[in-house]
Design a protein that fits this description.
With about 240 residues, the chain is mostly helical. It is built from 15 helices and no strands. The termini are far apart.
Length: about 240
């Protein structure tokens, strides 16, 4: 398993970090499966959440936290718990029987159609893996001067800040002129967004990369990575723009 030296290097060396994440995927899958209660695959939403969480664990790890594997499992468990809570709030909280994840659907159940949709998603081999989407996202983010692995430093932590970012993202997604300006200039129109959303410029500037990334991921074809944005997606929808 990962050594403290490897983690320390991954914190300083972006190229090594990317390789480290790829090499650690078996560990990430095991940790996610342990928390989810079923065998998580790379095409499951849980994997994308766990991958983000592992990246967060690397970035925030300190030797005082103890052994890194235990720290990573703790962060993965926390983020998956947050994810399930967000999914329940965002959806209609439809309960799914455990056998659904093995491809079994009870045709007499009231939620049989939902169960079939879940089975189809799990069985679909064309579903992009999180690693593939991260690679595509990096190509999309490059003109804006950041990459996927930079987002951990600028992601909002406080609920009030998350809601402020959500309001800005909603404004960006629902104001075509501003979104086209973003795509054309690769620069966030901070002043205009502040005026339209009512959010302070200072907050927008501080979380510039996160706001751009969230808008691009939600607008684009990133089903796996977008699943990690369940909370901000709900908040964006609640803005009513």
């Amino acid at each position: 398993m990962q050594t403290m030296q490897q983690v320390a290097r991954a914190q300083q060396d972006r190229a090594f970090l990317e390789d480290f994440l790829k090499e650690s995927q078996p560990f990430i899958l095991r940790a996610a499966s342990r928390c989810a209660g079923f065998a998580v695959t790379r095409s499951d939403d849980e994997f994308s959440v766990a991958l983000f969480a592992f990246y967060e664990a690397v970035r925030t790890y300190d030797a005082e936290a103890g052994a890194f594997p235990a720290w990573a499992r703790l962060i993965i468990s926390r983020r998956l718990t947050d994810h399930y809570r967000a999914v329940r709030r965002f959806s209609s909280e439809v309960p799914l029987a455990p056998q659904v994840f093995d491809g079994a659907v009870e045709s007499d159940d009231a939620d049989a159609e939902v169960q079939r949709a879940v089975v189809e998603k799990i069985a679909n081999p064309a579903t992009a893996t999180a690693a593939e989407e991260i690679e595509a996202a990096n190509a999309l983010f490059a003109p804006y001067g950041f990459c996927f692995y930079d987002l951990g430093k600028c992601s909002p932590r406080a609920e009030k800040t998350r809601k402020g970012c959500a309001a800005v993202v909603a404004t960006l997604l629902h104001t075509s002129d501003l979104f086209r300006q973003l795509e054309r200039t690769h620069t966030l129109p901070v002043q205009a967004l502040a005026q339209h959303s009512g959010v302070k410029k200072k907050l927008i500037e501080r979380h510039r990369e996160y706001i751009i990334a969230a808008a691009l991921l939600l607008r684009g074809e990133f089903p796996t990575l977008s699943a990690y944005l369940q909370t901000i997606r709900k908040e964006v929808a609640s803005c009513g723009l």
